[in-house]
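FIELD: query
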Amino acid sequence: MRNNYRYSRYNRNVRIRRKRILILTIIIVALGGLATSIIDDKFFSKDKNVQALASNEAVVSKQDDGANKTKEDDTNAEVQSDSNVDDVASVEKFLTQQAKGQKIEDTDGKKVVYLSFDDGPSETNTPSILKTLKDENVKATFFVLGKAIDQSEANKNLLKQEVEEGHAIGNHSYSHNYKYLYPNGSVNTNNFMSEINKTNESLKKVLGEDFSTRAIRFPGGHMSWKNTGEVDKIMKEKDYHYVDWNALSKDAEGPHKNADQLTEEVKKTVGNKTKVVLLMHDTYGKEETAKALPGVIDYLKSQGYEFRTFK
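FIELD: result
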């Protein structure tokens, strides 16, 4: 009897252990399945997020490319639609080649002059310069200062008049302050670009949000300053092009000159060049420049030059 009791008890314990093992196995399997599901969901969700991010980046990149392409197409269309307008990139290129003594590419042999006026607009000289240009049926490029635009309503109206009469507009910084823009003779990239941006804002406030210009003229000329590499890179990314000059009236150099003397300086510096970017000024105190302009235009016409602008 005692042996039978022990045997029965033993069997019962075995059955209990088996049930426990079975239950434990079921629990382990269930937990394993749940863990696998969680891991799969986590990684699948991560994959979906990565795919979505990649898709969004592709869309943004495509939109940026499209915007840049649209801007480029608009510029090309504007240049092509006006026979008196050249691409500012080509003007920058030929000036750079000429400054380096290289052969100028893409020249058709025509004599071309680009009249340019810096530091305006001004109420004293810009109106008479605009009148002369209109009377002579000649277009020019005005490199304007943001502070001059913001100075008065009259100057804002002169800026509008320049555009309405078919002249081109370039950005000449906001303040024209050499110490701020070029400390120790070197370009301060942050200061320079902040002034370009500030003048762009002034231009848009007057001419509308859609207005933009790719033409930049460094106060004092790009040629005059050190350490231009960083700012050149930024300008290239933004499709800006700097335009110096290869002839000038010297109305901002040396002693004061009268109209006849300014005209003679133009003749000397133009020389026998085929392509000319002529520097003059329409700011305050440049009354003799305004007086000299009719004679300058007459001389250039007599030498067979075609008057053009750039954008």
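FIELD: remark
Residues 1-8, 34-69 have pLDDT under 50 and may be disordered.
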